Amino acid sequence: MLERMLSARRGQLHSDGAEVEDDESKTRKHISFAMRVSTHLTRLGYLLPCILLGVVLFCIVLVSTWSRKLACAPSSDAASRFRFLGFEGPDSDFGSLGVPWLSKHGKTVQWTSKDLLKGLEEFVPIYETRPIKNNMYGMGFDHSFGLWFMARWLKPDLMIESGAFKGHSTWVLRQAMPDSRIVSLSPRHPEKYLKKGPAYVDGNCTYFAGKDFVDFGSVDWGSVMKQHGITDLSRVLIFFDDHQNELKRIKQALKAGFQHLIFEDNYDTGTGDHYSLRQICDQFYIRGVQYIYRKLIRHGVPFGGGHSCFRDSDEARERARRKKFWEKAVDIDELCGAGEEWWGVRGQMRDDFNHSNKDISYTEHFMNSRYVESILDVYWELPPVAGPSLTHQSRYDPARVSSPIVEDGRFGLFTRLGLSSLETSVFNGYTQMVYLQISEPES
Questions:
Q1: Which residues contact 136 (CB under 8 A, 6 or more apart)?
Q2: Where do the H-state alpha helices sit in 155-237?
Q3: Burial class of 339 by CB neighbour count within 10 A (0 to 12, 13 to 18, 19+)
Q4: Are strands 236-240 and 376-381 parallel, antiparallel or unpaired?
Q5: Are strands 260-263 and 434-438 parallel, antiparallel or unpaired?
Q6: Residues 155, 148: Cα–Cα separation, whole Å
Q7: What is the rounded distance in angstroms from the CA atom of residue 345 to the CA atom of residue 177?
Q8: Distances (CA, A) of 284 to 15, 87, 379
Q9: Taking a C-beta distance cutoff of 8 angstroms, is the pair 166, 135 a contact?
Q10: Which residues contact 50 (CB under 8 A, 6 or more apart)?
């Protein structure tokens, strides 16, 4: 592109020079200046495109570095989303959701994509031994892998899960940490499901379930930690799969002193049965970063937070198109309430499996995001395990998530990892599982 621009510029300059020779009314000073410019450009040859390209790359790196200082930023890398320097549009014209992927301290996770690939190779044979083969309404492969990988990497002394269902997540935690204690909170004890089919009950787990159930926010965690010999709360991992307002759960966990949290269902804006981290961090002010990127690379595809409820907008048309292909894609009518409330789910902060909902203003929604930023040290969304052309999943919109661990087209790697041997249905449960590290706000 730069070469074409330079060629056009050269042509214009040489043409101007020819006009000067034909036009006697021009002064000799103007002729001399044009000739000097043309001579210098000719001497530079291919060096000039390299210089210009270097300047462009330097500006992109500079803006990228500056943008990472924000607590809320796009979840996927701008270079990969734009097929850098090829300027191919991403999967969606309305951009990726603005979510916090770095922290107030500039921290991020220690693991890399290579670690994830190595983990996948190890986890597939483990997953094939799962006691609950058909975990309908529970975790599929993507989130099972994510929970196992993060628990094994963090190596907690105690693991707490809120929401156990049939016990599949308990089993996954046990595979990751065979000797660590588990505390499980669930309204219904997993053993009750044994009467109807496969379930898992762990022998080294303390259950607050069934008649002994206590909600996470009501547990005397100081007493529980003492019973389990835990003195360092940074050695505790909390896993939430209870479909409760995630803002509420974060506040409860922070009050108890916990730092490491995983949320299984991190629903996108306009979807889900509870208020999620993704929804909280979907904000208009994310567009400050987006605007600079667009100006810099001159590409018309936005990324960032906030939405328009205008029915004749590009976003509305793109959402309607994608709704035809992806089950969980959200069109404008689903996204926006009667008063054009797009935040949360049509302006609602949902809670408790969609049984307890509250209408909130955009101001409240905005302040929720500012609070989350103030306590957030690390935010990391689990990428999909593989692209939709490999897994044949048809639920989540790939334009709204980060790049998969195994990208589309890499069928050889997909097969080598053993993923092709799994039923396609196990890949249909992805909802942006997220890992957080939190701490008290700075004074």
A1: none
A2: 168-176, 221-227
A3: exposed
A4: unpaired
A5: antiparallel
A6: 10
A7: 36
A8: 47, 24, 19
A9: yes
A10: none
SS3 state of residue 160:
strand
pLDDT-derived band at 48, boundaries 50, 70, 90: low
Q: What's the full length of the chain, in residues? A: 443
Non-local CB neighbours of 121 within 8 Å, separated by 6+ positions: 416, 417, 418
Distance CA 91, CA 17 (A): 46
pLDDT tens for 93-137 read 333 344 455 456 667 899 999 999 999 999 999 999 999 998 988
- How far from chain centre, in Å, is Cα 49? 36
- Taking the model in full, what pTM does it have? 0.78
Based on the number of CB atoms within 10 Å of its own CB, is 144 exposed (0-12), middle (13-18) or buried (19 or more)?
A: buried
Alpha-carbon distance of 329 to 271, in angstroms, equals 9
| Rounded CA separation 144/146 (Å) | 5
Q: What is the DSSP string of 134-150?
A: --TTS--HHHHHHHHHH
Nearest-5° Cα angle at 192, 219 to 150: 55
Task: Give residues with Cβ within 8 angstroms of 365, minimum separation 6.
Answer: 280, 283, 343, 344, 349
- The first and second tokens of residue 128, run together, are 């094939």
Please choose, from the candidates 388, 427, 422, the residue with its C-alpha nearest in 3D space to the C-alpha of residue 404. 388
Q: How far is CA 3 from the centre of its chain?
A: 36
Query: Is residue 257 left, alpha or beta, with left meaning phi > 0 and alpha meaning psi from -120 to 50?
Result: left
Which pLDDT band holds residue 281 (cuts at 50, 70, 90)? Answer: confident
